[in-house]
Write a structure and sequence with these properties.
2 copies of one chain form a homodimer. The first copy, chain A, has 339 residues and is of the alpha+beta class. Chain A folds into 3 domains: 75 residues, Arc Repressor Mutant, subunit A (Orthogonal Bundle); 154 residues, GAF domain (Beta-Lactamase, 2-Layer Sandwich), CATH 3.30.450; 93 residues, Enolase-like, domain 1 (2-Layer Sandwich). Helix content of chain A is 47%, strand content 19%. In chain A, strand 4 and strand 5 form a beta hairpin. In chain A, helix 2 packs across helix 3, helix 5 packs antiparallel against helix 6 and helix 6 packs antiparallel against helix 13. In chain A, 39% of the residues are buried. Chains A and B meet through strand 4, strand 5, strand 6 and helix 11 of A and strand 4, strand 5, strand 6 and helix 11 of B. The structure holds a DNA duplex (30 and 30 nucleotides).
DNA sequence: TGTTAGCACTCAAAAACAACGAGTGCTAAC
DNA sequence: GTTAGCACTCGTTGTTTTTGAGTGCTAACA
């Protein structure tokens, strides 16, 4: 489709634009890429590339900038994998060595390091109950009226909430109840537990309606509402990008990021594994039609545990971002596996 | 110190400036405040107020804006309590009715509603272990090699982390261990547990060094690092304030907000209860010397459980912010008490 | 003695204008 | 096919002008 020279020129333009955010002119290319061509020749090629939809001109007397199509092409065919520097890897290793106390913290740190290394906003969505399977339930008594209900799932995470204990109920009864419920629900994905099953347990066990109601509600809550946790990182980073020098633009982006539902939708994990890059209008929301997103889903024993993503202007360092995410991705799966 | 007329004029200036963000001129005051005075008279008064340090002039041909001293005076003596509208109260009530599943969520929602209602950044810092007292420890087994260690504290919250179980150790042994540790540490504030005490437990109980080491580390972690949780709300809101129309300004603020340590320092809860307003240079960091902060500490049974704060430009709707926080404050204590 | 109309003055912000220069497209020569 | 040369475009930058909101001062008034 494109001959080698065009490809080379396109690549130079893209990479120059990515690093400078300024439209690229023919002189610059002649100087930088040692193609042994004069600006005039390059101009002809650029003119062709524009006709083919790879370049755009902000206005006549400016250089040219890559189109969405160009980025797509760049990501698909031009980009070379590009390993991380030892420095970067050491940074990541060191970063986690102190920050893997619990799962939440791991995700939180991931979001942080991700944004710090890519200079863009990062999002980490941890799928919880949706895939997690119920293992058992336990009450940790607090006092006569209250206990903490802990639900342990098979991915080693734990959810808890407070429940009120009916007057006079003994701890032994609670324990018994926990055992029965555990047996009933064991191995079920949290979000699969439906009304019918609750009803089943209800019939079998509980005399106390209020307790049971609050239990049901609590489990329901854990399963449905709490099913994904979102960690964001580095809104600050994006302010360094010239495309966000305008506050209005930042506001648009933040509106999306602060709306949990939107973030979830954005990252609704695709089935396939590996990295996924969405560019410009490929993104779901109009507010980020001039942004690109690189996302990766990570899994544990085949199950999707979460998704991480980097969001920034289409003029993004795809190479760097992809290699950082690739490294983090594998790294994360290892950490989680050893948990 | 100031006669009534000066007070009245000052108040009008402050409130006008708060709502418009434009320097206030004598004409405006004559029109708005029905003092029956001509602009000329008001000009004389304003001139006095400037001499007294209450007003500043951005430049000769502009109106005047309140000084930090003026805001201080306003907050201390001029402001009238100003109740929330029924509408606002209903909003808050409705907001919580669906969002009080667990403590984290309550704090999170608080940060959100706070920023939404005040149009400023909000921060909620939840003190955890520092004041919380150790109640008991429990292991929730996962498989042969792993268990979740839960530490229940007297404020009804729970912290957990994964620990590895030495090969061959039985669950009964763990239970026993948990019992011993619980007995040893019961009633102690988490951050008071020091090396000596660990050593004491160690001598009494454990044969296994690795398990013990990881236990120590885990408890230490919970006590030290995890002692406060921070919830932020509404960075977006602040972008609507004209003083943050400049991205550089926003970056400065975000640098502080994204640094957990700084937020904690900022809110390092003062002993006294009630609301505290810091204006301009009264704030700890130079990055927010043109901001004001309204904070409230909330308590449970006399113990400080956390702090919430609203941070925005000095030109802040103090009246609204204070009444929102006041309402939330009491509201929160009630919710937490009933937990 | 306090209040006010009148007026000259100030100065930031907006508008209008000029000069610059990076970059292009086209043509003609190599 | 490549390239030097040149006229042309148009955003950016800098300068000047205009505008108008607001002030301080003075003198007159109640």
């Amino acid at each position: 489709m494109l001959n080698d020279r065009k490809k080379k020129i396109l690549q130079i333009i893209i990479e120059d634009y990515i690093s400078t955010a300024e439209p690229v002119g023919s002189r610059t290319i002649a100087r930088k890429g040692d193609l042994g061509l004069s600006p005039a020749t390059i101009r002809n090629e650029m003119s062709d590339l524009e006709l083919l939809g790879f370049l755009e001109q902000p206005h006549t007397s400016a250089g040219r900038i890559p189109s969405a199509q160009a980025y797509r092409f760049y990501v698909d065919s031009l980009i070379e994998p590009g390993l991380l520097t030892d420095n970067d890897m050491a940074l990541i290793d060191g970063w986690y060595s102190e920050r893997k106390r619990n799962i939440d913290e791991i995700f939180h740190s991931t979001a942080k390091i991700l944004s710090r290394m890519t200079h863009n906003v990062s999002m980490v969505v941890a799928n919880k109950s949706s895939t997690a399977k119920f293992r058992y339930l336990k009450f940790l008594p607090l006092d006569k009226n209250k206990a903490i209900m802990c639900i342990v799932t098979d991915n080693g995470s734990i959810d808890n909430c407070l429940v009120k204990i009916p007057l006079g109920m003994q701890h032994e009864e609670l324990e018994y109840l926990a055992g029965r419920i555990s047996k009933q629900f064991e191995g079920k994905a949290l979000n699969e537990i439906d009304e019918k099953e609750f009803a089943g347990v209800y019939k079998n066990i509980s005399q106390d309606k209020t307790l049971f109601a609050s239990l049901t509600k609590a489990i329901r809550n854990l399963a449905n509402n709490n099913e994904q946790k979102i960690f964001l990182g580095g809104a600050k980073q994006i302010l360094n990008q010239p495309e966000f020098r305008d506050v209005e633009r930042v506001k648009e982006l933040l509106s999306i990021l602060e709306e949990e539902k939107m973030v979830k939708d954005l990252l609704s994990a695709e089935g396939d594994s590996g990295l996924k890059v969405t560019i410009g209008t490929e993104n779901a929301f109009t507010g980020i039609h001039d942004c690109s997103m690189v996302q990766a889903t990570y899994r544990l024993n085949g199950e999707i545990v979460g998704t991480m993503a980097v969001l920034g202007p289409t003029r993004m360092e795809y190479g760097k971002v992809i290699s950082v995410m690739d490294y983090l991705h594998k790294y994360l799966e290892t950490i989680l596996k050893n948990k």
